């Protein structure tokens, strides 16, 4: 999958910048080969993956996911995802025209009902190094330590439950979103605010 992601990025960037018709054909073929490799790894249909790749335009860069670790009485705020029925720190894709801190505050409000304030960028992790390899995109995951400043627990269109969990009693996790090691590290950052930001 790593090779396929790199081939896809080369093809996408090449298509964005070349005006030569022959190079356009070569980059389109490279994109098709990347889709074939991805279909082999995931057993997904080649055409559906290729269609997803065709939708991406411009210089290929990683996507950004934000996650908020907010605490209350030594427990961390988590939400249950409707999509897989498992739990994660609130978060999601970063939006255009919002800072990363604004995005994580918005995600916490949307998914949990709580108003929060971002206190610290605790980690910037590479998805492929830290999470199960199930995504076709290159992703940077930004984890923030947050403080709850208002609101109340409320499920959403994306989440079915909201709850706080102690460090040693985590529920079944949505591992593509958050791992136990990542949550444990957020507890460490909460307990020791002087820790430097982690990054890959």
Account of the 3D structure:
There is one protein chain. The protein is of the alpha+beta class. It folds into 2 domains: 2-55, no CATH class; 63-199, Alpha-Beta Complex (Nucleoside Triphosphate Pyrophosphohydrolase), CATH 3.90.79. The protein has helices at 2-17, 21-42, 46-55, 100-112, 127-130, 180-191, and strands at residues 63-72, 75-81, 87-88, 91-93, 114-126, 139-151, 159-166, 198-199. It is elongated, with a radius of gyration of 19 Å. Strands 1, 2, 3, 4, 5, 6, 7 and 8 form an 8-stranded mixed β-sheet that branches. The protein contains 6 helices and 8 strands, in the order αααββββαβαββαβ. Helix 1 (2-17) packs antiparallel against helix 2 and helix 2 (21-42) packs across helix 3 (46-55).
User: Which of globular, elongated, flat, extended, rod-shaped describes the shape?
Assistant: elongated
Distance between the termini: 19 Å
Shape-level CATH architecture of the largest domain: Alpha-Beta Complex
Assign the structural class, choosing from mainly alpha, mainly beta, alpha/beta, alpha+beta, or little secondary structure: alpha+beta
Tell me the series of helices and strands, N- to C-terminal: HHHEEEEHEHEEHE
Characterize the largest beta sheet: strand count, sense, and whether it forms a barrel: 8 strands, mixed
The CATH superfamily of the largest domain is known as Nucleoside Triphosphate Pyrophosphohydrolase
List unreliable stretches of 5+ residues.
none
Radius of gyration of CA atoms, rounded to a whole number = 19 Å
How many domain regions?
2
In terms of DSSP E residues, the strand content is 25-35%
Number of strands: 8
The CATH topology of the largest domain corresponds to: Nucleoside Triphosphate Pyrophosphohydrolase
Number of helices: 6
Helix residue percentage: 25-40%
CATH class of the largest domain: Alpha Beta
Mean pLDDT, as a whole number? 92
Q: What is the subunit arrangement here?
A: single chain
């Amino acid at each position: 999958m790593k090779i396929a992601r790199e081939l896809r990025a080369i093809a996408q960037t090449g298509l964005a910048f070349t005006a030569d018709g022959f190079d356009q054909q070569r980059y389109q073929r490279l994109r098709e080969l990347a889709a074939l490799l991805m279909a082999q790894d995931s057993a997904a249909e080649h055409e559906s993956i290729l269609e997803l790749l065709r939708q991406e335009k411009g210089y290929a860069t990683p996507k950004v996911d934000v996650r908020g670790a907010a605490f209350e009485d030594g427990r961390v705020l988590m939400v249950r995802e409707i999509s897989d029925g498992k739990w994660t720190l609130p978060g999601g894709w970063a939006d255009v025209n919002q800072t990363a801190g604004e995005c994580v505050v918005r995600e916490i409000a949307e998914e949990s009902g709580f108003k929060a304030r971002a206190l610290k960028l605790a980690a910037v992790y590479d998805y492929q190094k830290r999470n199960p390899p199930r995504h076709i995109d290159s992703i940077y995951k930004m984890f923030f330590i947050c403080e709850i400043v208002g609101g109340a627990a409320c499920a959403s269109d994306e989440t079915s439950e909201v709850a706080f969990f102690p460090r040693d009693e985590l529920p079944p996790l949505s591992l593509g979103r958050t791992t136990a090691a990542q949550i444990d590290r957020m507890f460490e950052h909460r307990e020791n605010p002087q820790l430097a930001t982690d990054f890959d």
